Amino acid sequence: MRYFNRGSRCMRDKMIDEVLKAALSLFVIMGPFASIPVFISLTKGLESKQKLSAATKAIATAAGVLFAFLFFGQFILNIFMIDFASLRIAGGVVLTILGVEMMLALSISGKGDHSPAITLLATPLLTGPGVIVTTMIFVQEYGHLTTAIAAVIALIASWVVLWLSGKISRTVGNYGINTISRVTGLLLTALAVELMITGAKAAFAV
C-alpha cells in the first residue's frame, strides 16, 4: 500500500508539473499583454460591464478555436498525412516568427492590422497558429486531459488580463506593456528553438 501511495503521488506530481508547464507555455504564446492596446481601443467608451462582456466573448471565441484543434487536431494531421516531427519543426518556425515580432515590435505576420471586431482579438491574436500548433503538440506529449486543463488555466489567465487591461495599462504604462511583450517574446523564441530541436531529432532519429 505504501508503494502504491508513493506511485500515485509521483503520478499526481508529474501531472501537475505537466499542466503548469503547458499552461505557462500557452499563456506566453497567447500573449494577452500584447493584446491590451488592441482591447482598449476596441472597448473605448464602453462601461465596465460591457468591457467584461467583450473580454468574455473574445476568450470564448478563442477557446472554441483552441478546443476544436485540441480534440480534432490529430484527425486533421491524418487527413493531410503530416508527420508529428514535421509539425514540431513547423510550429517552432511559427513561434520563432511570433517571438521575433514581440521582441522587436515588428509586424511580419500582419498581426498589426486589426479590424474593429472582438473576434479578431480572439483569433488570430489570442488563438493564432502558434497556440494551435502548440496545443496539438501538447496533446501528443501529455494527452487530452492535461492539455485541456492547461488550456483552461491559460484562457482564464488571459481573460483576467483583458478584463483588467485598463488598470494594467494605467499602472505600468505603454513602456511597461512593451517591456512585458519583449520578455514574453524572448521566452517564446526559446520555446520555439526547443520545439525545432526536438522535431529535428525525431525526424532524423538522432
Account of the 3D structure:
The chain is mainly α and 206 residues long. It has eight helices and no strands. About 3% of the residues have low confidence.
Topology:
Layout (H helix, E strand, L loop, with lengths): L1 H29 L5 H7 L5 H32 L4 H21 L13 H9 L2 H14 L1 H20 L1 H39 L3
Helix pairs in contact: 1-6, 1-7, 2-8, 3-5, 3-6, 3-7, 4-6, 4-8, 6-7
Bulk shape: globular
Count of helical stretches: 8
How many β-strand runs? 0
Average pLDDT, all residues: 82
Span between N and C termini?
40 Å
Main pleated-sheet profile? none
Tell me the Rg in angstroms.
18 Å
- Uncertain stretches of 5 or more adjacent residues: 111-117
Query: Helicity range of the residues?
Result: over 70%
The sequence of SSEs as H and E is HHHHHHHH
Features:
0% strand; 206 residues
Quick overview of this protein structure:
By secondary structure, the protein is mainly α.
